Amino acid sequence: MRHRTLIITTALALLLPAGATCQGMPVYDNTNFVSLVKSLVESAKQTANLVKTVNFLKAQKENIEKVNSVVRDLQAVREIGRNNERLIAVMQNDLRDILDSPYIKPGEVTKVTESFNSVVGNSLATLDFIDEILSSDHLKMSDAERAEVLKQKELESKEMVTDVRLKTKRYREIISFRKMQDKINNRETTY
C-alpha cells in the first residue's frame, strides 16, 4: 500500500502543472505603485488646469461679446448724435432762411414752425429714451435687445433727417414758385 501511495503521489506530481506547485506570496513592487500614483496626481493637476483654462476662455469670450455689443451700441448712439446735429444745422440755417423769406405768409410761419418743432420734439424724445436705455437697468434688457432698440432708433433718426430735408426742399420750392409768380405778376408790360 505504501508503494501504491508513492506511485499516486509521483503521478500527481508529474501531471500537475508547474505553476500549481510554485504558488506562494505575490510579489509587490512598491516603486511602480508610487510612480503610478504620481502619474495620476499629475494628470489630475493638468485636468484641473485645463478646466480653469476653459472657464477663463469662456469668460473672455463673453467679455468680448459684451464689448462687441457695447461697440455696436456706441456706433448706433454716435450715428443718432450725428443725425441730431444734422437736424440742428438744418433748423439753424435753412429754417431761418425759410421763415425770413417774404414769400412765406404770416399764417404759414406758425405751420412751418410747428412742423419742424414736432421733428425736434421727436428727436429729443429719442435722445431721452436712449439715455434711459443706456443708463438705467430697470428696463431689464439684454445687450442684444438693447442693440436692436438702438438700431431701430438710429433708423428713425435717419428718417427724421430725411423728413426735415424733404420739408426744407418743399418750402424752398414753394418760396421759389412764389418768387417766380411775384415776378410774373409784377412785371412791367410794354405794349
How would you characterize the overall build of this protein?
This protein is mainly α. Helix content is 85%, strand content 0%. It has five helices and no strands. The mean pLDDT is 75.
DSSP, total strands: 0
- Spans of at least 5 consecutive residues whose pLDDT stays below 50 are none
Morphology: rod-shaped
Counting copies of identical and different chains, the oligomeric state is single chain
Helix vs. strand class:
mainly alpha
Overall mean pLDDT stands at 75
What are the defining features of this structure?
single chain, 191 residues, mainly alpha, 5 helices
Q: What is this entry, summarized?
A:
Residues 1-20 form the signal peptide. The chain has 191 residues and is mainly α. The chain contains 5 helices and no strands.
Helices, strands, pairings?
Layout (H helix, E strand, L loop, with lengths): L1 H14 L2 H4 L8 H71 L5 H30 L7 H43 L6
Helix pairs in contact: 3-4, 3-5, 4-5
